[in-house]
Design goal:
Structural class: alpha+beta
Number of strands: 7
Number of helices: 11
Order of helices and strands: HEEEHHHHHEHHEHEEHH
Radius of gyration: 26 Å
Strand order of the largest sheet: 5-4-7-6
Distance between the termini: 24 Å
Largest sheet: 4 strands, antiparallel
Shape: elongated
Number of domains: 2
Helix content: 40-55%
Length: 339
């Protein structure tokens, strides 16, 4: 979620600046066009001045409070044009009119972080500072290599950071460390809460033809490979992974959720019809595993969760399921009661 939003914001900003970076361009006028009326020029004024962006301050101990918005945050200045100061609130208001989807995605990201912070505080979850620093160093090393490989002799690393992100190296590194901690908190909290509940992991196939789905179920019961069938015939984008879903608990917002908890490991469901996109499709579900909930403190499973995140990062499906289920906490009532 965070990486996707960051990409959108950077892309939007790049597009906005690209139009003015090279200055005005002359537009040729056809010889037969009548003379245009003189247009008064705007008076020359001071050049816009972009102010340095400072990374948010984080507690050196990296407690879960780093996910929460700063209660007394000043409305920081971003740029100055003469006697006009452009502030962070102005940037959001402008973004809300220019691209409401991106602006509201940023709000959703903040809501998500508040939920994660509350669960981290409730369950005593803290990220190890050494682990955060390791992740930040690895990401910096990968970016340095990419810049060196692609921009060798054209731009040094510090210049790249300023051009790409508007940040000096020290501020970029502080932001990277903070982002690494935020991601780790998100992964720890989502996987820990999931581990405490009964979960299922399945593969599924979607198709318009119920007869074909019955044929798939029959073949799988006879020993056919579900991965191959889903990869070749499913009409859902998950076919790229053989119809695989991450482990989920009861109440997961997906057409296969109910069927999954009626199956034992290695069983395949009868085809059933459910909503899919804007219409209806037929589904077949294959149960990979059923995992009973484990009522254990976070410290007892921290290494297990960390290792799992290293091999399989949090997926968009996991973040969406978590947000849909828990965001009602912010108003003190279940998510399903929100209007």
């Amino acid at each position: 979620m965070a990486a996707h939003l960051q990409g959108l914001l950077i892309g939007l900003a790049a597009g906005a600046f690209a139009g003015c970076a090279s200055g005005p361009r002359a537009v040729p006028v056809a010889a037969t066009a009548p003379p245009a009326a003189a247009t008064p020029e705007l008076p020359a004024g001071p050049a816009p001045r972009l102010l340095p962006v400072r990374s948010p301050k984080a507690d050196p101990g990296l407690g879960p409070e780093l996910l929460l918005p700063e209660a007394t945050a000043p409305d920081a200045a971003l740029a100055e044009v003469g006697d006009v100061t452009i502030r962070q609130s102005h940037a959001f208001a402008r973004l809300l009119t220019a691209n409401p989807k991106v602006a509201l995605s940023a709000v959703d990201l903040l809501v998500f972080d508040v939920l994660v912070a509350r669960h981290a505080q409730e369950h005593g979850i803290r990220v190890p500072v050494a682990r955060v620093d390791e992740l930040a160093r690895d990401e910096e090393a990968a970016l340095r290599k990419q810049v060196a490989d692609e921009l060798a002799g054209q731009m040094d690393f510090a210049s790249y950071l300023w051009r790409a992100f508007g940040l000096e190296e020290a501020d970029w590194r502080a932001a990277l460390r903070l982002r690494s901690a935020q991601r780790l908190y998100q992964g720890y909290v989502l996987r820990y809460l999931a581990l405490r509940e009964d979960r299922a992991q399945v593969r599924f196939l979607v198709h318009a033809d119920p007869a074909f789905c019955r044929e798939v179920a029959t073949k799988v019961r006879a020993g056919a490979d579900f991965v191959t069938l889903a990869s070749k015939h499913s009409e859902d984008p998950s076919r790229r992974d053989g119809g695989l879903l991450p482990p989920f608990a009861r109440g997961f917002q997906h057409p296969v959720a109910t069927a999954a908890f009626e199956l034992r490991r290695g069983e395949v469901s009868e085809p059933f019809e459910a909503s899919w996109g804007e219409g209806k499709r037929w589904f077949v579900v294959y149960c990979l595993d059923r995992m009973p909930g484990r009522e254990v403190p976070f410290a007892a499973v921290a290494d297990e969760i960390d290792a799992g995140l290293a091999t399989t990062p949090i997926s968009p499906l996991e973040t969406s399921a978590y947000t849909l289920r828990w965001r009602g906490q912010l108003e003190g009532r279940p998510a399903g009661d929100r209007k």
